[in-house]
């Protein structure tokens, strides 16, 4: 191979030209691709990272949430009642520890089981706990802690696996089951593969089939449009989670920005609507509830506490969030979780 050097007239860098192929490569150091970072402990790939840039939908969640301001309505206001009925069952508050997964694999201290610790925190606080992708065996171990659970199953290419996991959840006392329909695409533009297991598409017929296969309420998690909300209704889903799964879709619209239209579109359907996405405080949760969510999922808002310290720290964080929620309800004359009013919000 023959090579010749010449200088780049603009930067002065020397460029190596491969004369046989005609391809060229700057010899000076390539600008390093900035590493996406994670604010949470645990290995990359299991714990969310963030680029902090415009393609990261979480950036837009934060901006959207922080620009919702709240007017005061304090005359006649009283201490609120946070109890909330979700899918016919009563819980202490509308905060629900989110559908997370794989956390028993992320800590170097293998004696700790964050998935069980989170389930225990939810049980102790009388909250409805969500569990994401876990094998049946692991799911069974987590729910043996007691407390109510919703199981979210991945959109596996193997439909038998989905049906099997639905049945397992049903047999193990789940309150509801669902699919995170937003986890279809991988970064390579193909169906994603998680833990070596291929995911696949979710058609209307699939969704109908899964919803009809169980006596439990069926949930579509990861709805971010009126269009999908209407399809979920048509498929027989009893609830949806308005969510983009901590930014799976680049440039995703903040869930709360689409929530009011989705709420309007599903009015009269009897479906429940939950929301998540960067709800880090009780004030954020208040905004989601005032916008029309029946309950909210809290994922990364309890992730540091969970991974660093476990059950008690998660309980403390959720207690603080409940207090902030109640504080904001009192400032706006919302006496209970059925009485939220979006007209207090300015954005
Ligand atoms: C570590 C981790 C694992 C997750 N695994 C799942 C999962 O298996 N299934 C699922 O539906 N969502 C999963 N999620 C997404 C959450 O349920 C939630 O939709 C998302 O994190 C947005 O909420 P947040 O902003 O409060 O974290 C996961 C989130 C985290 C942080």
Write a compact overview of the structure shown.
InterPro entries: Aldolase_TIM, FMN-dep_DH, FMN_HAD. Residues 1-53 are annotated as: Disordered. This protein has 347 residues and is an alpha/beta fold.
Low-confidence stretches: 1-28
Question: Which ligands does the model contain, each kind named once?
Answer: flavin mononucleotide
* Total number of beta strands: 17
Tell me the distance between the termini: 63 Å
CATH superfamily: Aldolase class I
What is the H/E order? EEEHEEEEHEHEHEEEHEHEHEHEHHE
Q: What's the CATH class label?
A: Alpha Beta
Compute the CA-based radius of gyration.
23 Å
User: What's the average pLDDT?
Assistant: 90
Number of helices: 10
User: Numbering strands along the chain, what is their spatial order in the largest sheet?
Assistant: 7-16-15-14-13-10-9-8
Percent of residues in β-strands: 15-25%
**Fold-level CATH name:** TIM Barrel
Shape: globular
By secondary-structure content and strand pairing, the structural class works out as alpha/beta
Largest sheet: 8 strands, parallel
């Amino acid at each position: 191979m023959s090579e010749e050097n010449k200088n780049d007239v603009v930067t002065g860098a020397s460029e190596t030209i491969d004369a046989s192929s005609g391809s060229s490569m700057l010899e000076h150091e390539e600008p390093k691709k900035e590493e996406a970072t994670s604010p949470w402990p645990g290995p990359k790939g299991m714990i969310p990272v963030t680029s902090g840039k415009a393609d990261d939908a979480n950036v837009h969640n934060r901006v959207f949430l922080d620009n919702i301001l709240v007017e005061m309505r304090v005359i006649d206001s009283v201490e609120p009642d946070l109890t909330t009925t979700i899918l016919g069952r009563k819980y202490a508050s509308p905060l629900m520890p989110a559908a997370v997964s794989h956390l028993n694999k992320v800590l170097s201290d293998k004696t700790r089981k964050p998935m069980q610790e989170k389930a225990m925190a939810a049980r102790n606080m009388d909250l409805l706990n969500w569990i994401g992708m876990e094998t049946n065996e692991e799911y069974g171990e987590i729910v043996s802690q007691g407390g109510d659970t919703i199981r979210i199953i991945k959109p596996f290419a193997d439909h038998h696996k989905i049906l099997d996991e639905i049945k397992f959840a049903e047999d193990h006392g789940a309150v509801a089951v669902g699919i995170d329909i937003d986890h279809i695409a991988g970064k390579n533009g193909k169906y994603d593969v998680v833990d070596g297991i291929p995911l696949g598409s979710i058609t209307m017929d699939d969704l109908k089939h899964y919803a009809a296969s169980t006596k439990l309420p069926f949930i579509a998690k990861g709805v971010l449009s009126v269009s999908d909300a209407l399809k979920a209704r048509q498929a027989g889903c009893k609830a949806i989670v308005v969510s983009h799964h901590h930014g799976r879709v680049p440039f995703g619209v903040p869930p709360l920005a689409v929530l009011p239209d989705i709420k309007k579109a599903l009015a009269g359907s009897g479906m429940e609507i939950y929301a998540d996405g960067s709800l880090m405080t009780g004030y954020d949760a208040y905004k989601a509830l005032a916008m029309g969510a029946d309950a909210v999922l809290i994922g990364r808002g309890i992730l540091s506490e969970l991974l660093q310290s476990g059950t008690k720290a998660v309980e403390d964080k959720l207690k603080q969030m409940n207090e902030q929620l109640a504080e904001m309800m009192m400032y706006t004359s919302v006496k209970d979780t059925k009485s939220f009013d979006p007209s207090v919000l300015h954005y």
